[in-house]
Design goal:
Rossmann fold; two-stranded antiparallel sheet; alpha/beta; elongated
Amino acid sequence: MISQIDKQIVRSWGAKLLGPRLAALKGQKPAGGPRIAVIGNCQSFGVAYAMKLLDPTARVDHYSAVAKALANMNLLARTLKKYDFVFTQDFPPHIVKGGDSQELLLRLSNATLFPTVSFAAFQPDLVYLLDAENGNKALFGPLRPYHSALAVFAFRAGLSVNEANALFNRNVFEAVGYLDVWNAAAREFLDNAKRYDLDLSQDLMNWSRRGAFMYSIVHPKPFVLADIARRLFAKGGLTIRNDNFEDYAIDDLARAEIFPVYPEIAEIYGVRGGYLFKQGNFHISNGVGNFLTLPEYLAACYAVYGRARPSQISHPRVDGWLADEAFTRKLVYLARINLANGASPDL
């Protein structure tokens, strides 16, 4: 299957060979701005789009390093050498035959590596279930790879869906440490940015003033990616010709799954919270998408977990909780007492 990288390589060579002729036929002047390529995961489109807004004269091409490409590293490197600037996130070796992002950097003199935005404080319950017995393949649930650690625990501990629902309460969040994540998340985020020679401390402060700036632990809102683009422009010595991002923003990642900020956690950070889980909808022309309440989400998770092998519903955090018998008894007790007292989200 042809990937987005393969398609973009074809477009790039087509623009190189036919672009001037087509522009002449249309009476257009060739683009005079810098040629920029942005490569990376699901966040990279937002960065590329922001760069085009920052300099409308630039030619900005986006290479999505998510699906496995037919192209090899030699062809990708040859293609990217035609750009003035290449900004790439880390990508693994199975995306392009012949190497990973580090191999690409060795072949290019015009490339800059930039980080993936990851921040867990708003959604500390979100985990991935990776099957160690099957090459760490992710188990997909109602929100594709996004799972609730508390939901997994509840299923494995033998709780009913109603009892699982009652786990979503401040007393449980206190017990598992979900109310005290910000400092560690911020430190991890800033330390990671420094490894890419970026100081994002002021940006993080600005984002936090705007509310919950993440749709999930790895999906930031568009203004976050615009600020990353600004930092990369500064790092590359590029000129910002238009800084009016808000009026032209595209919220590309809002089409994907959205993991809610639980109200008890949201209250601590002074942001809006809830228990509405959004399912992914990448074809909005075919429908407006679906949302799940907490009980609906838990019931859908239980259906998936009931069909799964034990290795598919294993996670270090949940395994640790279950290995501690006293702690397991405490969580089970809290779930049942919350349910009995009506101290759980509405069913």
